[in-house]
Amino acid sequence: MYDLASKCSVLLAKDFVHSAFTVILNEETRNSRSLYVEMNQTVITIYPRLKISKMYNFSFTEENCHVLDQSLENSTMNSRRGTNKIEVSDQKGVSVSCDFQYDLCTVTLAGWHHGVSAGLFGTNDNEAGNEWMMPNGSFTDNVKEFTQSWQVNKCSLVPKKEKPCPITAKQNICKVFFEEPHSLLR
């Protein structure tokens, strides 16, 4: 268990043998995130804060947007929706579930996906020694290096420190009125 310090989109898990699934955590604007899930030529992007999902099927070349209170129809994925929860799965044993009330998403893989995936979620082969494998096949025990290796876009790993804004004349007046020790308004 580790904190994800990255403000970048990162690959959580991908089937590198059969290309059965891909799960990416995307960094969106205003410090929000979305979950990109690809299965059976269908992509569903889940936006937990907005409580919506956006679906795209490669076979139809058209995009459908769905609010969670609607059913996800015409999909090769199965879906179930509760009041604050959405679950998508396929017949091959891949399931992604998001509970919006607790801001928690889970990825579950059936046994026949044993050892065919990699990403920040590890190799899924019950071997503790290779969980921190990077895309190039090498291993690390450094969280920053591990996280950076699974980035799917170009961005900085840690947000840049913002420079303080220059003090304006109005701010100086406020400082004199409210912060100076001799001010009656302090």
Would you mind describing this structure in some detail?
- 9% of the residues lie in helices and 33% in strands.
- The chain has 186 residues and is mainly β.
- It has one domain.
- The strands form two sheets. It has a seven-stranded antiparallel sheet, with no helix packed on it. A four-stranded antiparallel sheet has the order 7-8-9-10, with no helix packed on it.
- The longest helix has 10 residues, at 169-178.
Layout: helices, strands, pairs:
Layout: E1 10-15, E2 21-27, E3 33-39, E4 42-47, E5 52-57, E6 62-67, E7 78-81, E8 85-89, E9 94-99, E10 104-109, E11 117-118, H1 143-149, H2 169-178
Domain VWFD: 1-166
Organism: Hippolais icterina
Protein name: APLP protein
Strand order of the largest sheet: 6-5-4-3-2-1-11
Order of helices and strands: EEEEEEEEEEEHH
Instruction: Determine the number of helices (DSSP H or I, runs of at least 4 residues).
Output: 2
Unreliable spans? 60-75, 157-163
Helix % is under 10%
Strand content range: 25-35%
Shape: elongated
Give the strand tally: 11
| Mean pLDDT over the residues | 76
| Overall tally of domains | 1
Termini Cα gap: 48 Å
Question: Major β-sheet, in short?
Answer: 7 strands, antiparallel
Q: Round the Cα radius of gyration to an integer and report it.
A: 22 Å
Structural class assignment: mainly beta
Keyword list:
186 residues; seven-stranded antiparallel beta sheet; 2 helices; VWF_type-D; APLP protein
